[in-house]
Each structure stands twice: as structure tokens, then as C-alpha cells.
Amino acid sequence: MASIFSNVSRVKVGPATETADLRRRVKEDTHPNKVDLGAGAYRTDEGKPWVLPMVKTVEVQMAADMTLNHEYLPVAGLPAFRTAASALILGKDNPAILENRLEGIQVQGGTGGVRLAAEFLKRNFGSDIVYVSKPTWGNHKTVFIHAGFSQIKEYRYWDAKNLGVDFEGLKEDLQKAQEGACVILHAVAHNPTGNDPTMDQWSQIADIIGARKLFPLFDCAYQGFAGGDLEADAQVVRYFVKRGFELFIAQSFSKNFGLYNERVGNLCIVTKTPDVIPQIRSQMEIIARTMWSTTSHHGARVVATILGNPAYFEEWKAQVATMANRIKEMRQMMFNKLRQKKVPGSWNHILQQIGMFSFTGLTPDQSRVMVEKHHVYMLLNGRINMAGLTTKNVDYVVDAIQDAISSH
Ligand code: PLP
Hints:
This protein is α/β, with parallel strands linked by helices. The chain folds into 2 domains: 18-52 and 323-407, Aspartate Aminotransferase, domain 1, CATH 3.90.1150; 79-308, Type I PLP-dependent aspartate aminotransferase-like (Major domain) (Aspartate Aminotransferase, domain 2). The chain has 15 helices and 13 strands. The protein has a 7-stranded mixed β-sheet with strand order 2-10-9-8-7-3-4, sandwiched between helices. A two-stranded parallel sheet has the order 1-12. β5 (158-159) and β6 (164-165) form a beta hairpin. α5 (109-124) crosses α6. The longest helix has 31 residues, at 310-340. The radius of gyration is 22 Å and the shape is globular. It starts with 17 loop residues before the first helix and ends with a helix. Residues 40, 109-111, 137, 186, 191, 219, 221, 252, 254, 265 line the site of pyridoxal-5'-phosphate.
């Protein structure tokens, strides 16, 4: 007998996301030189995942702590985590914190933060239009579509000719944006381009956002990854708060704590006045209650413990810097090899870009050669994860780039 779902036209296999498809192909590929530059996760120089030693220490302590239990957390999440996470991005003496104009809601990673923000805005905000950078992290558009936004619009961001931010295009598009819409901004280390506006450009962006009455949602998935400096990576968000904007920040702790599968995130809410915080929190809690009811404990506890202990915090900071520095070294090494091997192009952009990703400038056809012929897995838009490069595979990757460019 046929299933009742067999005649429902909507119930069909959807397209695999490009990253999930790459992950599957990498796993199945038996080629000895295969290289995974597709996954958005840190790897050691041995090409392995890294459990941060500071995280491990706290996990061992937690396992031995007989006072811990598995009781439900509050709907809004672990209080110590929410406070510590918000202080990490804004600085603990930020006026928004001191004046109680801030709330943190624990969410399922950065994705959960973006989704909760979208759900809240859809229900409680005058606009169901969102602006995202072109290009942006693949999930931004789909999250907002699934939250019921009627229009997902793009503002220009990447100048493919000059391999940098198309600032004039960005300004022009935001100046024409629908008043009152939401705009997603990458707080640091833009994914996928690795190119951020300068502070002077950010101040102009803030002017436009203010003039057009747009609502900024900062996506902050890489604090610490841009250059190993947590404060520097928070400066854009702090600048907007200082300018008096009301905003949300979707913080992810997947990358900077290496806690990818623990789903640790904080949706940080900053308002002009403290009186609206209880209402906003309540509406967020209603949404959270119907989506995941209450949050999970383990990862949030690890983060809260490390952020709340000055000695642990210093150790963790050094480990974040270790990751950021290895990525920087790989940038330099790849750049040197591209130059030594006289691969066409200046490749300066590889050094100028920051964070985990590089937008190589390879075309979709060239990227396809990388994947199909050389088993170097990367996105077709030319994005590579610099952390997937190692001292052992960089020559192979550069030779593959040379071949891909010469064949197209
Ligand atoms: N936002 C951006 C810009 C990202 O690059 C990522 C991860 O790749 C996320 C959000 C998702 O983070 P999480 O894994 O914590 O959900």
C-alpha cells in the first residue's frame, strides 16, 4: 500500500547543500592526495580536528563533578553562559550591559541565533524583508525564507574584478533599501569572501543604516579567528552599539571553542532602553519553547566556565590565537608557493583576506577541475577553508590551482 505521503507533491527529496555534498564525497573518496578545503572547520597541520586543551580540561572536570545533574535549564538558557557570552562580544563594561539594555538568549549555535532572530522579527517587527550580502553564508537566505520572510534581497559586496569589497555597490544598494527592513552584517571575517570593510567604511555603513532605519542583525561566527584578537574582532559590533543602534548579534562558539557539534550560541539583544527587554525576552522564550523547549547544557557550561575563570580565559585565548596563527601561516605559505610557481595572478588577496576562508577568485569551471580532477574539495564559488591546508598538502593544492587555471 502506498504511503499517504507518496502523493504529496511537496514531499520530495530536496537538493543537498553543497557543503554536505562535499563532506560526503570527501568521505567516500579513496584518492591518497585528497584534500578537504570545503568543510568550515579548523584542522591541525596533520589535517585533524582539534579539541582545544582548555575545553578538554573543563570537560574532564565536569565529568568528575558529582554536583552536576541533568535538570532542565531555563528556556532562555544557562544564565552564566548568556552573561559571559554577551560580555565577550561587547566588553563587560559596555554601557548596554551596565544600563541593563541587553539580554542574551542561549541558542543552537550561530544558526539557531539567526533563526531565532528571524522568527522574532517576522512576528514582532514591521517588516518581513531582509538584506543579505552578495555573496553570503549559504544558510542566511534559507533561514529567513523558512522563517516566512517575503523578500530576501541582496546588497552588493564582492568585487570579483578587483577581488575586494565592492564598497560603492554596497552603499548604493543599502541606500536604496526598504526602510525598516532587517540587514544581516558579518561582524568579522566575512564568509565566504574573507574581506571586511574598513572601520571608515563601517562608519559610512552605519550612517546609511541609520538613515534608512534598517535593523542590523550581526552574524558573529568568527570572533578570535580574524587575527587571534578577540577585542579587535568585536570592534565593529561595539562601534554600532556605541552609535546607539538597537541590534541583535547571533554569536556562535562553534569555531572559537571548536565546539561544532555541541551547538553553542547566544543571541545577544541590545536595545536603547531597559524597559523593553522583559517583553523581548518573553517573546523570544515563547518561540524557543515551541522550537527546542530548553537548551542543552554541556557546551554552554564549558564556555561559561572558561570565560568565567581568568586563568582559563588566558589559556583559551592563547589557543584561539594558535588556530588563527596557523591559518595565517597557511595564507603566507600558499601565497609564497603561488608566486614561486608563477601561477598567473597577483594573489595578494590571499594575504589580505582574513579568517578561516579565502575567496580564491577561481571560477566555477576552475573550481570544478580542482574537485573532479585533483580531489581538492572546495566550493564552486571559489571558496576554500584555509585551515584545510597543511605544510604537507599545500604544494599539491597549488599545483592543482595552476592546472585548473591553465585548463580554463
Ligand atoms: N554564520 C556564519 C557566517 C557562518 O560562517 C557559520 C558557519 O559556518 C554559521 C553562522 C553557523 O554557525 P554554527 O555552526 O554555530 O551554527
